[in-house]
Design brief:
6 strands; 1 helix; mainly beta; 102 residues
């Protein structure tokens, strides 16, 4: 898990030469990053593509089990199926931010 805190410090000099120093906290966001391999042949993946199955179960490189909606793999589908190493980023709430074949 990667923590990302964004804060902006600012200094303002008013017309009467008084200085205002402040801090604006913009956002605190946690991004979860997972790496995993997948090897699903075309016939197996058809179940996800046609809506007969919903989630693909994979085990990431650290041994955690992930359930990923099959529709996220559609851009990676070839005649051989879906195969390769992937990097997935999720928001703190579990929303998919990116899925990349690496």
């Amino acid at each position: 898990m990667i923590s990302c805190s964004l804060a902006k410090f600012f200094t303002v000099i008013n017309a009467d030469d008084t200085e205002i120093i402040g801090v604006i906290f913009l956002i605190r966001m946690y991004i979860m990053i997972f790496y995993f391999s997948i090897n699903v042949n075309y016939q197996e993946f058809e179940r996800y593509y046609q809506g007969h199955a919903d989630k693909v179960e994979v085990r990431d490189n650290e041994g955690r089990i992930l359930w990923i909606h099959g529709r996220h793999f559609r851009p990676f589908l070839t005649r051989a199926g879906v195969q390769g190493q992937f990097k997935m980023e999720l928001s703190q709430s579990g929303e998919l931010l990116s899925l990349l074949k690496i």
